[in-house]
Amino acid sequence: MFGAKKEVNKSRAWKRLENHYKSLRKLEMRDMFKKDPQRAERYNVSLESMVLDYSKNRINERTMKYLLTLAKECKLDERIKEMFAGDKINITEHRAVLHTALRNRSNTPVYVDGKDVMPEINAVLAKVRKFSEAVRLGEFKGHTGKKLTNIVNIGIGGSDLGPKMATEALKKYWGKDIKCYFISNIDGTACCEVLNEVDPETTLFIVSSKTFTTIETLTNARTCRKWLVDALGEPAVAKHFVAVSTNTKEVEKFGINPENMFEFWDFVGGRYSMWSAIGLSIAIAIGMDNFEKMLDGAHTMDLHFKNTEFSKNIPVILGLLGVWYNNFFGLKNYAVIPYDQYLTYLPAYLQQLDMESNGKFVSNNNEYVKYGTAPVLFGGAGTDVQHSFFQMIHQGTSIVPCDFIIPAISHNEVGDHHEILVANVLAQGEALMRGKTVKEAAEELKKAGKSKEEIDFLKKFKSFRGNRPSNTFVIKKVDPYALGMLVAMYEHKVFVEGVIWNIDSFDQMGVELGKQMALSILPELQSNASGVAHDSSTSGLIKLVKSLRK
Ligand code: G6Q
Q1: Nearest residue to 477 (alpha-carbon basis) of 427, 406, 380
Q2: How much is the pLDDT for 1?
Q3: CA-to-CA dists, residue 533 to 80, 83, 253, 320, angstroms
Q4: Are 350 and 374 in contact (CB under 8 A)?
């Protein structure tokens, strides 16, 4: 179990990696590729049709050996077993962490407090199937007898980002008359913009909230409820509102019949919940068979993670590379760039997964950590981002390890778009790795007929240091199965890093303070009540906004 042990940065494996870094940091990847024609094969691992090429990383065999030893010293194998077995590895909240059980397609028993959770999971999945099919077939109709075709998920954070990312990723699989919308932000604009687009008679609201106490979600849900009742009357609520929650009492209090509630459990963390009934909007959009294919893909990755030796284990390799750059190179940024328009929301989803899970400064030993934890994760769809932040990635003073994701086949094969897209992603990886020396830049300028003065002036500006790391993932196509694999892969990568850093990747205490303080400021904005004493900046800003709103 988790608990007191030597801090990882004091371990032998860590010290050995620190020393190893000193010699390796001088090596150039372009030289390593030149010297070793087998490098691409050596650092390449696959699972079914997904391939990870991690050869463009600043590693050699010794690096991998030492990193794997670190994983062993941190008892990663035991931690993996504990997670899958339903041990309470979320130590601050005393909870099991069982998103893997939600997609346990092998249906082997999984016990929490001596009780097998699989029957309940299967029952909710069956309920999701029944309901999503009834909506898609128009059997579950709106109050006025019309088919429900606008699906509006109201939720935030983990109850929004997963469904939003996955429905967008799988848009090609949407039922032909279905449209999905997401309302998350408390900003009234989020609500109004969606309500302006949909028709109450054909709209189904899914209120997704694990706790059913989240101020944004409840405020948005109340506004949507009023909008519906104003248009169709109170009895319409039963046909247009369903809830996904662990909190039956609050769901009832809100005015949603528990029969229209889909349950999930404390052992599912918000940001790990899209595999549960929180994925109801996904199931309605793409159909339950496709939803289950997504679960199948995730399960395949789970089995790979659980059963594959570490040197060939994709999430383990990714997690160790994350630790390598973060803790030994001191790199605090990390970019994920999917080269597929449908994966536009993947970086935002991963931002929560990675930064909320591992953005922690207290270890499981109840001590402040003395090493870096979660990096700043950012990203966006290629090629768009090549024309924005890639300047910094190529020539900035910080090195940003990148993950590139590319499907071999596009859902929209038009002209030569896809080949151009693929050429771009491959070019980025190669350019980051190779760079361009000042000498090469000068030669190029010479060939272009530039004068000696121009060449002397421009050659540095035109050079690229290179030696910048990236991973390239190739998948066949963005389909439900591949998406399931991809997302589960990142979940486990984050878990691996959390184990090495000896932190609880499954709580999120860091989001509490701001929430608490907002509650104390709200009455001051709404009336003349002066709540707690603020600093002069906050008090001044409260005063300013109030005067502008008069
Ligand atoms: C995720 C977090 C957080 C959570 C939201 C919404 O892991 O717990 O993002 O999902 O705060 O919470 P509710 O689902 O309870 O409304």
Answers
A1: 406
A2: 46
A3: 47, 44, 34, 46
A4: no
- Rounded Cα distance, 287 and 161, in Å: 19
Asked if 429 and 470 count as a contact pair (C-beta separation under 8 A), the reply is yes
Nearest CA to ligand 1 atom 2: 270
By most ligand atoms within 8 Å of CB, the mutation choice from 213, 508, 512 for ligand 1 is 508
In this predicted structure, the answer to whether residue 539 has a pLDDT above a threshold of 50 is yes
What pLDDT digit, counting tens, does each position of 424-440 carry?
999 999 999 999 999 99
Asked whether 161 lines ligand 1 (CB < 6 A), one says no
pLDDT mean over 436-446: 98
pLDDT of residue 515: 81
181-207 pLDDT, tens per residue?
Answer: 999 999 999 999 999 999 999 999 999
**pLDDT digits 0-9 by tens, 103-156:** 999 999 999 999 999 999 999 999 999 999 999 999 999 999 999 999 999 999
- Catalytic pick among 356, 491, 497, 524: 356
| Overall average pLDDT of the 14-34 stretch | 97
8-73+308-434+468-507 fold:
Rossmann fold (3.40.50)
Structure tokens at 3: 């608990």
Q: Is the CB of 159 under 6 A from ligand 1?
A: yes
Look up residue 356 and give its two tokens: 């909320």
- 356 classed as catalytic: yes
| Nearest alpha-carbon partner for 287 in 198, 178, 207 | 178
The single residue listed with the structure tokens 């906050």 is 538
Tokens 């005063």 belong to which residue? 543
Contacts of residue 262, defined as CB under 8 A and 6 or more positions apart, other chains included, come to 124, 127, 128, 131, 242, 243, 244, 245, 277, 280
DSSP per-residue string spanning 247-283: -HHHHHHHT--GGGEEE--TTS-GGG-TTTGGGHHHH
- The yes-or-no verdict on residue 527 having pLDDT over 70 is yes
Indicate yes or no: pTM above 0.85: yes
Residues 208, 256, 127: CA angle, nearest 5 degrees = 65
β pairing state of 115-116 and 150-154: unpaired
Q: Which CATH architecture has domain 111-291?
A: 3-Layer(aba) Sandwich (3.40)
CB-based contact 212:164 (threshold 8 Å): no
The ligand 1 atom at the shortest distance from the C-alpha of residue 155 is: 16
The string of DSSP letters for 418-469 reads HHHHHHHHHHHHHHHHH-B-HHHHHHHHHHTT--HHHHHHHTTTT-B-----
Report whether residue 214 contacts ligand 1, using a CB cutoff of 6 Å: yes
Q: How many CB atoms lie within 10 A of CB 123?
A: 11
What's phi and psi for 327, nearest 5 deg? -95, -20
Model confidence over 202-248: pLDDT tens digits?
999 999 999 999 999 999 999 999 999 999 999 999 999 999 999 99
